[in-house]
Design goal:
By secondary structure, the chain is mainly alpha-helical. It is built from three helices and two strands. It has one domain (6-74).
């Protein structure tokens, strides 16, 4: 178990990814937290992130994080 209400997924492509219960969605899906995961994923995979998946997309700031990520990539950052 990680933070309250979360657990780490074992093995596979999503290893180390936090899984959340709906009540924690607002905390787990914070904009800055989602954006901070991007470089970590890129290092782990050895290639750029092209897809961001979260649980409970309507809770928290994940949608704003994805919009910001897409805008930065469109500008070549």
């Amino acid at each position: 178990m990680g933070a309250a209400g979360t657990r780490k997924q074992r093995g596979g492509a999503g290893a180390g990814v936090r899984m959340a219960c709906r009540l924690d969605g607002g905390q787990i899906n914070r904009r800055d937290d989602v954006l901070n995961q991007v470089p970590e994923c890129e290092r782990a995979r050895g290639r750029p992130v092209n897809f961001i998946a979260v649980d409970y997309t309507t809770i928290g700031g994940a949608r704003g994080a994805v919009n910001e990520f897409n805008a930065e990539r469109a500008q070549g950052r």
